[in-house]
Amino acid sequence: MRLITRILLCASVLIVAAVLISCALILHAVDRQKRADAIKSAETDFSEIYYTISNVNTVLSDPILCDTYMTYKVKSASHLDQLTLSYDGTYLINNVGFTPEPFLSETSENGIYHYVITRVGGTLYLMIGTDVYYGDRIYIISMVRSLHELDAAMRTLILQCVVIGASVTVLFLFLAWFILSASLKPIRTLQSGAQSIASGDYGTRIDIHRKDEIGRLADEFNTMADAVENSISDLREQNERKQQFINDLSHEMKTPVTSLLLNSETLLTRTVSDADRERALSRIHEQAEWIERLSRKLMQLVVLSDQIELVLSPVVSLFDAVRETVVDSLDRAGVKLTVECNDETFLMDMNLMRSALVNLIENAIKASERGSTVELIARNNEILVRDHGKGIPKDEVARVTEPFYMVDRSRSKKLGGSGLGLALVKRIAEAHHAELVIESELNIGTSIFFRFSDAI
Amino acid sequence: MKRLLPLILTFCLLIACQPTPSEPVVVQKDTERLVDTVLAQQPTDSPKEDAPNTAAPIEPITERFTFDYTSENGFLHITADADVSVPASGKIPMTYVKAHYFSDKFAKKLFDYVYQGNPVYVNTHGPKTKAVIANELAYYQQIANEGTWEENGFVDAQEVDEYIEQLKELYPNAPETPVSEPVLADGSMTIESYYGSDTHKLEIDDEIGYLEVYRSESSGKDHTPQNSGMAYFRGAFDTRIGYEESSSEGLRAFQHWYSEYDSYRIDTSDDTKAYGQAYSPKEAAELGLQFFRDLGVTDIAPRDMCYLYVAHPNGVTKSLYLIEYVRIVEGIPVAFIPAVQAYPYTDSAEFPWDYEQIHAFVDDEGLESIGWHNPIDVTGIVSDQVNVISFEDASNIFKSMCGVVYEPQTATSFNADCYLDVKVEHVELNLIRIREQNAEMLKTGLYVPAWIFYGKEVAQYNEHGEPDFDKPFSKILFAINAVDGSIIDLHKGY
Predict the structure, then answer these.
(1) Which CATH number fits the domain that encloses residue A408?
(2) Which of A163, A178, A212 is the last residue in one of the domains?
(3) How far is CA B307 from CA A219, B272, B317, B340, in A?
(4) Quick check: is A218 in a domain?
(5) Which pLDDT band holds residue B432 (cuts at 50, 70, 90)?
(6) CA distance A82 to chain B (A)
(7) Distance from CA of B403 to the nearest CA of A (A)
(8) Which of B75, B348, B444, B480 to mutate to test the interface with A (most CBs of A within 10 A)?
(9) B355 and B433 in contact (C-beta within 8 Å)?
(10) Looking at beta carbons, which residues of chain B come within 8 Å of A95?
């Protein structure tokens, strides 16, 4: 069932109930007032009759004459057609057609009369009666007044209430439908927007500018749509990066695997000289080592999670460990390493930081000429590795941390690079909630900063 | 929603519940009880002509009824020295009655009788010309503007406005000049609607005479009949004689410019022409009877007569008989109710039911006028012989109750002493009409046997002298229902 239909149904039930209750209360109040007026009028008339009849100026002794006297007195009164007179259960006058006395249940304020308003044979009557004493005889006089006019008036009023109530209900429902349709239009717009987004149009936004709940809902919807669009975009980017990563990995693996296959196939299928065999085995060993390094770094990259244990550790210890690890590489390349630090301590994972700094220094060594210096500095909230080598072109600075990206691919591969080092360093920096900043100038050198967050 | 709807429906059903209507214990109305009392005198269900009737025959009463009563305060004096008459047959019936309404057929019959079947050219009263309507509009508009509707005989301002609206509706189609062509009347009744009432009327008014037959009924679907009557006058308008009677002064004033000069009661059976008149009282009464017999109405008899001397402002005088007739039912005359008592008031919701009036004026030229108003139909016989209370019981009731009935009449709202002298002249066992109460606007009732005390009343204010009982007709002083002994109130008709 549509929302507008449900609302209109509920509203119609409520309005009908409200109209019914209101009409019932009004009709009840009007009926009560009319009945009260009828009782008052009847009491006035009956009082006049009662006092006329009970005003006895002659007391007769003969029972028949007593009846004649009382009958005459009643007949002389007004409203004769409404009166009954009885003695000892026998009616002397009754032109009403039924006995009113059994119905008289209420007592008037003066305590003398008994009255009731009741329906007899489908007609509404007001009956009022009392005892009249004549000598030692007790007569009962009653007045029975038809309230058909009151009945008819109430029926007319009920009909008017029904007609007016029905008209009001229909009019209200029409207005309500009109107002609800206009009010629920934004929801249909929201619905349409949601459908568009669900079908892939993530740029859909709702153009509703209101200060009510609907307006806030539209704003939230747009915010959600922004978040969805950004998430989709990020996911797409991530997907693309992953795909690129896989593509790059496949590409990187392809060469050494091909070399392994070729050389191993040569050895297996052909008779080669010892020198050739030595050369082939050497290539197999190199490629295997390369694949091993690649897979090791790849494993580090994949396994590294954001949830690492950071311990407040002195930089001095870190730098000593780094120096020990790179000393052979430095000697082979003829590059010097200078270390500069004080008593700085950082919240860090020593092994990961050592790995990152070793990667950076290895890269610096590869970029430096023989006799140059690589600097390892710790100051304030940062650790930097600076070389004075060839530098990175400005348009490639932003990409050097991408997995498998190499500035000079052939030279890097020749030097044993896999393209994953800086990607791993960046990942380690992210795990330490630190920022990796690369500043480089061609033929001047490169400085790579590990900037730790102040919160640490 | 699923829970709400049943709750709301239950609520609606609850508030629609009504208490079970009470079952009434049905009792008979008074007229039904009267009928049952009379029918109980015929114990079997066999046809009444075969059933033994336990009603005792009514013995003639030879003793006169005498009575003398003076109230304690001296303002009321009631005397009686009256003969008492009962039906010669020794029995009296009780019948069902209802009001009769003259039909179109009767109107045609009357027209043919009066005009010998010849069509009559009469000048109609309308239509009014534009000039006449314009003058009337200006006149009534002035009354409306000045608010003098009460002084000019209207009930209220609304009546004036309604009359003005009627004139405005007539104006567009009114002729410029008076209609000069006389209208041919052939005895057909026309319908006039006025204030919620439709009157079927045949009315001819010309130099030859005046004939009117009417019956009125309420407008709308139910067409509840209201009243009916007929009147015939011989001669031109200003020669006709009508009469009014007051309760204290008797025949007081006359229509059509005549005024009463003198009147005295005469015997309907008197066959002498004591004053040289063309017809004796008996012959004069017979003229009226013949008129009715010629119309097929035979159950009428003369009841009372008086001889009148009347004078016209131009000095012309004439003498004539006024004859009052009554209906005869199963040989028994219905009580004579003079004009002063024939038009009762009622405070009930029912339409007033005037008593039947039949009278005729006879002068030396013959039947001068005849009138029959509020006719009655006898619709069935309850019993042709009713057991009635004895005159002794009736006279005891009279003696016990006459003071109760008449003493209040001596009290006045004026600053004056009212002396009332009542004289009973004659007592008769007659039939009198009582009306069924709560008969839903229909005029139905019974002719019941009643002891009727006829006589005269004289009221004097401040000074009490010898009362003058010299009036032509007696009135009903007291009516006692001869079946149950109750006093019949002529005004209530019950």
Answers:
(1) 3.30.565.10
(2) A163
(3) 114, 13, 13, 18
(4) no
(5) very high
(6) 8
(7) 9
(8) B348
(9) yes
(10) 29-30, 436-438
Average of per-residue pLDDT across B53-63: 78
Pairwise CB contact (< 8 Å): A98 & B400? no
| Tokens coding A450 | 């590990």
- B256 sits in the region (left: phi over 0; alpha: psi -120 to 50; else beta) called left
Distance from CA of A25 to the nearest CA of B (A): 11
Query: Rounded distance, CA A185 to CA A188, Å?
Result: 5
Tokens of B57: 């025959």
The domain spanning residue A52 has which CATH number?
3.30.450
pLDDT in tens, B316-367: 778 889 899 999 999 999 998 887 777 776 555 556 788 999 999 998 999 9
Pull the structure tokens for residue B432: 């009198």
Residues of B in contact with A103 (CB under 8 A): 22
What range does the domain containing A7 cover?
A: 3-163
Q: For chain A, what is the domain count?
A: 2
CA–CA distance, A145 with A168 (Å, rounded to integer): 37
Structural domain contains residue A220: no
Query: Is the per-residue pLDDT at B236 higher than 80?
Result: no
Spatial separation of the C-alpha atoms in residues B382 and A203, rounded to whole Å:
104
CA distance B372 to chain A (A): 29
* Percent share of chain A, pLDDT over 90: 25
A97 CB neighbours in chain B (<8 A) are 24, 26-29, 438
Comparison of pLDDT for B48 and A167, the residue scoring more: A167
ipTM score of the complex? 0.77
Q: Which residue of A has its CA nearest to B478?
A: A72
Of B25, B400, B492, the CB nearest to A65: B400
Cβ-defined contact of A96 to B347 (cutoff 8 Å): no
Of A124, A143, A163, the position where a domain reaches its end is A163
Q: How many inter-chain contacts (A to B, CB under 8 Å) are there? A: 105
State which residue of chain B sits closest to A116, comparing Cα positions: B22
Select from A91, A77, A82 the least CA-distant residue to A49: A77
d(CA A378, CA A339) in angstroms, rounded, equals 8
Mean pLDDT of A423-451: 90
Report the gap between the CA of B347 and the closest CA in chain A (Å): 6
C-alpha dihedral, B458 to B461 to B466 to B471, nearest 10°: -30
Check CB contact under 8 Å for A10 and B30.
no
Q: Which of B5, B28, B494 sits opposite A13 (nearest CB)?
A: B5
Has residue A436 been placed in a domain? yes
Distances in Å between the alpha carbon of B30 and those of A103, B36, B97? 21, 10, 15
Of B84 and B119, the structure prediction assigns the larger pLDDT to B84
Taking the domains of chain B in order of start, what are their residue ranges?
A: 30-98+380-481, 101-124+183-377, 125-181
Note whether residue A261 is domain-resident.
no
- CB nearest A97 (choices: B4, B26, B487): B26
